[in-house]
Model the fold of this input.
Amino acid sequence: MRRGFSLVELVTVIALLGLVTLIALPRLAAIADGSAVRHQSAEVVAALDMARATARRLAAPARLVLADSALVVESTLDSIPVVAWRSPGPGAEGVALTGGGAPITFGPSGLAMGAANRTVTLARGSASHRVVISRLGRITR
Done:
């Protein structure tokens, strides 16, 4: 009666595990990239909603500053600048944000002021996602 495994059997199993790992790792990285991009696009939408709600609540214009380092909602309260909301930016998860540009300003009615439409693109690895903000405040993901 034989006990244990031979060296050839152990090396074969380790080689097969290595091969399966090499095949699976790129797919796992793509899944992680997609998850991070979807999470950060949800954060951008939450920041847009917060800026709109802040403008309506304070009956004063509110600005959303989109940057890789932070998402910030600013407004004024009795002529004093106030940071109403702050969240870490997409860069914290390695997601690149493009199209942030100038701050997005919402008026007291909740409508975006200034430029017509804005497209923000979030990307990491092979995954990317666009968030489009219309002048009327409609958000398309």
User: Anything to note?
Assistant: The mean pLDDT is 89.
